[in-house]
Design a protein that fits this description.
Largest sheet: 6 strands, mixed
CATH class of the largest domain: Alpha Beta
Strand content: 15-25%
Helix content: 25-40%
CATH architecture of the largest domain: 3-Layer(aba) Sandwich
Number of helices: 11
Radius of gyration: 18 Å
Distance between the termini: 20 Å
Structural class: alpha/beta
Strand order of the largest sheet: 2-1-3-5-6-4
Number of domains: 2
């Protein structure tokens, strides 16, 4: 049996076990996928314990993605570019290799599941943590006309924008929002505590598409906020979770699962 896991805090809400178990069923693979709650400052210890128990691969969610980048021995190109790791595999020699499947997973969800256009679009990303840092390069590769970052602590947004020597990438403060965006992506963890990012509503126009990287059984707080004044195209992060998980699964097992089948199962509440 293959032992896998997801590390984070909070972690109870994670649907990663159901997703990977559904992928494994497609190929007749016997696996166990655990949720591991990481106490503050104890990520490395939690990983060591998992590996000692025979773990061979794992995912990382909030707030441990930067910790994972610093822990692993090797990085793939995407992880090296973003400075963030969300997927780790254990080599036969005992080395940890880090990958970032978040950005590619998000783009696959936006373009394949949702059929939302990214090229020549004005995109605003809310947040400046590891989740946002991990998606910026993939979004930029889709040739938007603008890729702006907003965060409650502006200096963190400035730091992430500074990682890219591209004039399309900018950090914004409230006073600089003079027009709406084609796509607004919430990359903050505010929804996990029942709140929404305090970004000005003028970033939303009549045709703005709204995406929340958080997901849940009901419409997220951010998506409800987006639709207070009118209906807008909205989606939560379940599709991104499934697509990034499929990329992780292919790293661990060398097989590409059917994500559409799993999305249908989970979006109808069948785990």
């Amino acid at each position: 049996m293959t032992l896998l896991a997801v590390f984070g805090n909070p972690i109870d809400h994670s649907r990663s076990p159901a997703i990977h178990e559904a992928f494994a069923e497609q190929f007749g693979i016997d696996l166990r996928y655990e949720k591991i709650l990481v106490q503050p400052g104890l990520f490395n210890e939690a990983v060591q314990d998992f590996c000692d128990r025979g773990g061979t691969g794992f995912n990382i969610t909030v707030p441990c993605k930067l910790d994972a980048f610093n822990l692993v021995d090797l990085h793939d190109r995407t992880a090296q570019t973003t400075g963030v790791v969300n997927t780790v595999s254990l080599t036969e020699t005992g080395e940890l290799t880090g990958y970032n499947t978040d950005g590619p997973g998000l783009v696959r969800d936006l373009k394949t599941h949702l059929n939302w256009r990214l090229e020549d679009r004005k995109i605003l990303v809310l947040g400046a943590g590891g989740a946002v840092q991990g998606i910026m390069a993939s979004l930029l590769s889709e040739a938007p006309s603008e890729l702006a970052i907003w965060n409650r602590s502006a200096h963190k947004a400035i730091d992430i924008a500074g990682l890219f020597s591209d004039s399309r990438v900018t950090a914004k403060v409230d006073s600089e929002f003079t027009s709406s965006y084609d796509l607004v992506i919430n990359g903050t963890s505010a929804g996990l505590s029942g709140s929404v990012p305090l970004v000005p509503r003028r970033v939303l126009g009549p045709e703005t598409h709204c995406y929340d990287m958080v997901y849940g059984s009901d419409k997220t707080h951010f998506l409800k906020w987006c639709c207070l004044d009118q209906a807008r195209p909205c989606a939560d992060g379940l599709g991104m979770l499934i697509e990034q998980a499929a990329l992780a699964f292919s790293i661990w097992f060398g097989r590409e699962p059917d994500t559409h089948q799993v999305f249908t199962q989970l979006s109808h509440g069948s785990d």
